[in-house]
Amino acid sequence: MMFKRFFQTSRKNIAFAFDIDGVLLRSKTPIPRASEALKLLHENEIPFILLTNGGGQLEKDRVEFISDALDVPISPLQIVLSHTPYKGLVNKYDKILAVGTPSVRRVAEDYGFKHVVHQSDILRYRRDIAPFSGLSDQQILESSREIPDLDKKRFDAVLVFNDPHDWGADIQIILDAINSENGMLNTIRNENSSKPSIPIYFSNQDLLWANSYTLNRFGQGAFRLLIRKLYSELNDGLQLDDNTIGKPTKLTYDFAHHVLIDWQEKINSQTTHSTTQRLPSLGLPPKQTPFQDVYMIGDNPASDIIGAQLYGWKSCLVKTGVYREGAPLKHIKPTMIVEDVYEAVAKVLNQ
């Protein structure tokens, strides 16, 4: 019965988007039956992508690990990391402060940003900018570069790529930049404003995330709250006018929708081996969609499920990650609540 219904469903032009942490993997360990769920879709050419608020590495590197862990071929064109939409900002900003783990420098440069400064470069320039940094001198030397004329050319934007590891120093450096005089290092503007001196972007706003520990851990959303609170204190109570992408924002769901449409076209034209992708401009919604339904499979009601709900997609909430059974969902209404990702896929295909 399952396969009869499955083949009937496969002709209805449905698609799937999967969160990763708490849905397919828990830390680096595959969640039981996740491999079988993706294999079912891959073998029957039903389009799916991975849509995650995780990041800090190149799409091809993340996909390579997931493909090996789950034993399912996945193309780098099938994943949207939290910062993947930053590709749409490459022609907008010249010199950026790329905040996150040391790996984000490579990501930003691979995207095409011309002048990339990592926060560790600023610590190397002057250690007393963040005197209580948790990084040793050796760690700073290993992760940083000496940037000529670092203080002679303005920064155009701050882009937070993933959760940084040295919060005290990173908060200081970011607040210096967004309260500077026109983006110049070692300066401070004279007026208070809700508008920062240079734009700041956060790649997600997840307060919590699930790893191998028993309890949920703070994520980039918590880091953002600290930045916003301190900015307000420094600006006479005014609230920071920042930019957020990632789930549950419409901007990220629009971007992911474009990626799904592009992948469907590659399946139809048998060009899934391609390495080129038609990327939309940031914030541009698809003009039309080939899909009757798209199902978002996630573990976090506050990002995966509410994002799909507001965007018009259906959703499956799994119990293998952030969500705890019986926790109040209030205004969040998943299409279904299931034990795991395989049950989600099976139920959709059996409808």
UniProtKB/TrEMBL annotation:
GO terms for cellular component: mitochondrion. Signal peptide: none annotated. It comes from the Eukaryota. GO terms for biological process: glycerophospholipid biosynthetic process. PANTHER family: CDP-DIACYLGLYCEROL--GLYCEROL-3-PHOSPHATE 3-PHOSPHATIDYLTRANSFERASE-RELATED (PTHR14269), SUPERFAMILY HYDROLASE, PUTATIVE (AFU_ORTHOLOGUE AFUA_2G02580)-RELATED (PTHR14269:SF57). NCBIfam families: CECR5, HAD-SF-IIA. This is TIGR01456 family HAD hydrolase. The gene is TDEL0B02710.
